[in-house]
Amino acid sequence: MIIIGEKINGTRKKVAEAIRERNSDFISELAVSQADAGSTYLDINAGTAPKREPEDMVWLVETVQSASDLPLCLDTANPEALRPALETANKTPLVNSLSGEKARIEGILPLALEYKTHLIILALDDVVGIPDSSQGRMAIVRRLTDMALAGGLDEDQIFIDPLVTTISTDTENAKITLETIHSAKEAYPTAHITSGLSNISFGMPLRGIINRTFLAMCVAAGLDSAILDSNDRSLMETVMASEMLMGKDRFCMGFNKAYRAGRIGPALEKRNLH
Amino acid sequence: MENAETLTQAIIEMEEEKAMALTRRLLEEGTAPMAIFKAYQNALMAVGKRFEEGVYFIPELILSGNMMNEAMEIIKPYLTEEKSRDDQERIGKIIIATIEGDIHDIGKNIVATLLELNGFEVKDLGVDIAKDQIISEARELDADVIGLSGLLTLSFDPMRELVEALKAEGLRDKIKVIIGGGQMDEQVRDYVGADAFVVDAVSGIKLCKAWVD
Prior knowledge:
The structure holds two protein chains of two kinds.
Chain A: E1 2-5, H1 13-20, H2 24-36, E2 41-44, H3 53-67, E3 72-75, H4 79-88, E4 94-100, H5 102-107, H6 109-114, E5 118-125, H7 134-150, E6 158-161, H8 173-187, E7 192-193, H9 207-221, E8 225-228, H10 233-245, H11 253-260
Parallel strand pairs in A: 1-2, 1-8, 2-3, 3-4, 4-5, 5-6, 6-7
Helix pairs in contact in A: 2-3, 3-4, 7-8, 8-9, 9-10
Chain B: H1 4-12, H2 16-28, H3 33-52, H4 58-75, H5 85-89, E1 92-98, H6 106-117, E2 120-124, H7 131-141, E3 145-149, H8 156-168, E4 176-180, H9 186-192, E5 196-198, H10 201-212
Parallel strand pairs in B: 1-2, 1-3, 3-4, 4-5
């Protein structure tokens, strides 16, 4: 499972503060703890006003890279901020993200192609927004994925995001995402499927149990990546169990090793070993 | 005896079928449509309160909103002689939209629902709406407040342009502007030139109510 650690995001208050104050210790710690928890990529979102964003993104990229070896997921819709971040990144990053919105096709896609990055493709555009059917979402995904492939990216560099909308506003919403995952996997077998899942439980009680159950269902449908809080232990337990149950964990070694290392299950010091 | 109070309780307790049946029966028995409407309004206010308290969640908001809409259809034929409820009952008028360049609408929809529950006349223009359309709709409605939603940083500039345009048209003193979204803070509010920013729905409603009081 490709885990994109979501925590370095300037829309979170403490991170915004750290960015403003150039508190590199705080950011480094977030990077290290997410890496230790099993992240594959670290998402970097400055979340600042467009004018300040280029400078803030570059600072974040430099700070995170000096603390961790993980590749970065550059999370911005602003080409002015993306370019300097791409220039600063020392490993092939994942660009987050292309959508069917005109500004992103014109601003983000050319940069992803120029730097031959990995690329997240969102199933939305500026004509219909987020389509409320998997057919509608796939139409956008096909259009954008074909553009990226024609532009020189390999299929396995593409991360398709089927999008998750809240179950609290429409009880069909989870099924639409699951169907889109199925269709995307069928249309582009070697592409990755990723998403931020926690939207599903917005406006509901017991969000954790909803998120974990939905994650397992998405993995069963073909999701092989997720943007999440890798420090959320019970969520990571579900990640590992789902992948194992789908036959993607040889001899269950990933799961068992994570257990023995204390990354899942009770903390090591709390176990009664005989 | 079943009365408007029983109806209010049924709505509050999410007993949809009972509420609809009761609405029909009370109307047939001659209860004033206005009293029915008030029963719904009271119920929706109680529902909103439970939402604030963390007892109810978004599905309860939506279901109660749906009950109200359904009830309005039932009431309509009875309303012909009564004056439209809107002018007398509504405490303020608000235009709400996700600004051009952004398509996020969860927060906006919740705010619009809560505003209606709290007695505002709300015109929800949708997502990715150009400033000129928002201003002309606000002028037409004679709005007290314009509520702008945006989650993306890219929404800040269009919001600022809208405030500038309001000034240029001499409407800025007449209409309050409130911006909402996960990324809003004092810095953004200042940049946009809005009267207030909010990051959650409930405080937005409180502010709007204070403004029209």
